[in-house]
Specification:
656 residues, alpha/beta, TIM Barrel, Rossmann fold, 4 domains, eight-stranded parallel β-barrel, seven-stranded mixed β-sheet, 21% strand, globular, binds beta-D-galactopyranose
Length: 656
């Protein structure tokens, strides 16, 4: 199978989405001059070009793209060619309204924005396949082509009639019989029993709460249907260019599809990453997504999109202060990215994203953004040969499963304050702040390579996943689990006792009497720390626990907040950050896992990649860091002996 390395060939790919169809051709030459100046070696063409390529049904306007592909080749810039299928031209919706998706209220999502396609529409799929085939046939042998990018951020739901037919087909394949579906969905509740497949619809707007398993299956179905759209296009381009890698991009903690399943179908796993420059935890939430993406990729991955300055979709959109773009880009490289790319090359003057930054902003080449991009391009060129293709060692895995997130987010839950991504962020943060490098894994993956496995929250766990966790601990692994884990089976049926009995046995819990969610801002005293978000009334098995940290005061006074039985920990609340950090650092130390470096100043991140040691100062004040031994800093080509000072947002890439 082709890999990212086939496209990078020892360089970090640097560039971004390039939308030259928005500009007169004179501008293209100016673009190339500036791209070369900035060290851009890769552009993604065509993401939103369908109407330009096929201005009316069946027409083919490839001349402009031919000229661009040639221009890129002459300039030594590789092309990641996108299939333009995420934004169909207006004629498709006008002539074939059935290609337009409907929301849960039955409203049509019209053309005029983007992503207005129904994954289930046979007509959409036919047209998408035809334009993909034409592109692949035309450019298969073009020397500029390095990779394929299919569609863009697949995320469209469809509750319409054609989707309903496809949903029934998907459900039949999953359940076989209506009886099995009725049982899985628990339709005895509220008189929902289906007597015919034709009665089953997408979970459209209903008077009161929709059936949660129905909603969960619809999410699974949507992910699978979008995946079918992806694989259909992937197979077309693969037929023409079996030697070139294929990818698609996501924001995994926004409208995620089932990322583990999707990753199996991609040659390169890509991600779009837009942390808020004002968020004090922006670097940490980026690190989380980087760790997740690397784990999906099982190796180097592609930062497909980031912003050189502000985005334009938050309430208030802040620019990146001087140095931050460089810092966050090198952070991605430290955590396994072999491609650092942006949305987009040249900031648009028109359209919905004209206030979204580009590598070349409205300020032009003298602007600070471009000057910083240029510096970064030069630095990536300097380190590319040493970093690309190398791996990041991690002894800890955080378990994550989109199915568990979707199920846990159902409308009728006990607390809307519990936000799955936020809980995962809190746990990852605790490890990140302790300089413990983490992978992510699916709960059914082989975990035996890890010394420590942590489960921030997996509301839904299959029997296979539970067996996997038990086998992991039995095999000598240390497991730390957070609350609301193992509550439901894969059909979202609550496990008898409110939590799987094998897990209760693992943690030494006899009875889980009640869940006690906390109000926003409310805390619960525990011995040595405060809990937030959630608490539980649990009764340990007599004498089973090796350790119990109690709640103090209130209804739960004296009951266990944290339990440990052997190497299995259960944490029934969300400890305040310092306490969760201490707890996980202790579990890691007891499992024999050491931080990347001891004694690092606050705000400094350390990551080992291959033989290299990356040090990143996320603070605005200079810091001095002690490092064991002698190194060369690849960014400055200076020797480092035992210590170095990192300036504001400073980075060092040290080779022993
Ligand atoms: C991404 C998208 C890009 C652009 C960007 C703006 O979600 O893939 O096309 O819209 O956001 O931040």
């Amino acid at each position: 199978m082709p890999q990212l390395g086939d496209a990078t060939r020892g360089r970090v790919l640097f560039g971004g989405d390039y939308n030259p169809e928005q500009w007169p051709e004179e501008t293209w030459h100016e673009d190339v001059r500036l791209m070369k100046d900035a060290g851009v070696n890769s552009v993604t063409l065509g993401v939103f070009s369908w109407a330009k390529l096929e201005p009316e049904p069946g027409a083919r306007e490839f001349g402009w793209l031919d000229r661009l592909m040639d221009l890129m080749h002459e300039s030594g810039i590789g092309v990641v060619l996108a299939t333009p299928t995420s934004s169909p031209p207006p004629w498709l919706g006008r002539l074939h309204p059935e290609t337009l998706p409907r929301d849960a209220d039955g409203r049509i999502e019209w053309w005029g924005g983007r992503q207005h396609f129904s994954h289930s529409s046979a007509v959409y799929r036919r047209h998408a396949a035809a334009i993909t085939e034409a592109l692949a046939a035309r450019y298969a042998g073009h020397p500029a082509l390095t990779m394929w990018h299919i569609n863009n951020e697949y995320c469209t739901f469809d509750y319409g009639d054609e989707a309903a037919v496809a949903f029934r087909r998907w459900l039949r394949a999953r359940y076989g019989t209506l009886d099995a579906l009725n049982s899985a969905w628990g339709t005895a509740f509220w008189s929902q029993g289906y007597d015919t497949w034709d009665g089953v619809l997408p979970p459209r707007h209903a008077h009161y709460l929709n059936n949660p398993t129905h909603v969960l299956d619809f999410r699974r179905f949507t992910s699978d249907m979008l995946l079918e759209c992806y694989t259909a296009e992937r197979d077309i381009v693969r037929r023409h260019t079996p030697h070139l890698p294929v990818t698609t991009n996501f924001m995994p903690l926004w409208v995620g599809q089932d990322g583990w399943r999707w990753a199996e179908e991609e040659d390169v796993v890509s991600v779009d990453l837009y942390p808020d420059p004002r968020d004090p935890l922006g670097a940490q939430s980026a690190a989380l997504v980087q760790d997740l993406t690397r784990s999906q990729a099982r190796g180097p991955w592609m930062l497909m999109e980031q912003a050189a300055g502000p985005v334009n979709w938050r309430g208030v959109n802040h620019p990146k202060p001087r140095g931050l773009n460089r810092l966050w880009s090198l952070q991605a490289v430290a955590r396994g990215a072999d491609a650092v790319c942006y949305f987009q090359w040249r900031q648009s003057r028109q359209g919905a994203e004209k206030f979204h930054s580009g590598m070349l902003s409205h300020a032009g080449e003298r602007g600070r953004t471009f000057q910083e991009v240029k510096q970064l391009g030069a630095e990536l060129a300097r380190i590319g040969g040493e970093v690309t293709g190398t791996h990041i060692p991690a002894d800890i895995a955080i378990l994550h499963d989109w199915n568990a997130w979707w199920a846990g987010a159902q409308d009728g839950r006990l607390s809307t304050e519990v936000d799955h991504p936020e809980v995962v962020r809190a746990w990852h943060r605790a490890l990140w702040e302790s300089h413990l490098t983490t992978d992510f894994a699916h709960p059914e993956h082989d975990l035996s390579a890890y010394e420590l496995v942590v489960v921030p929250q997996l509301y839904l766990l299959t029997d296979t996943a539970i067996d996997n966790l038990l086998a992991y601990v039995r095999g000598g692994g240390t497991l730390v689990c957070g609350f609301l884990t193992g509550i439901a089976d894969e059909d979202d049926r609550v496990r008898p006792g409110g939590m799987d009995d094998r897990l209760r046995d693992l943690f030494g819990i006899r009875t889980l009497h009640e869940w006690w969610p906390l109000d926003p801002g409310e805390t619960v005293e525990c011995e040595g720390f405060r809990g937030t978000l959630w608490s539980e009334e649990i009764e340990p098995e007599d004498g089973a626990a090796d350790e119990a940290i109690p709640y103090k005061g209130g209804e739960l006074d004296g009951l266990a907040a944290v339990l440990r039985k052997g190497r299995a920990w259960y944490v029934s609340t969300l400890p305040e950050p310092y306490a969760l950090r201490a707890l996980l650092a202790r579990a890691a130390a007891e499992a024999g896992v050491r931080p990347v470096l001891e004694g690092l100043p606050a705000g400094v991140e350390a990551v080992r990649r291959g033989d290299l040691l990356f040090l990143l100062n996320h603070g605005r004040e200079p810091v001095t860091v002690e490092v064991p031994g002698n190194y060369d800093d690849l960014l400055t080509s200076t020797p480092v002996e035992h210590e170095l000072t990192l300036g504001r947002y400073g980075v060092a890439v040290l080779r022993p």
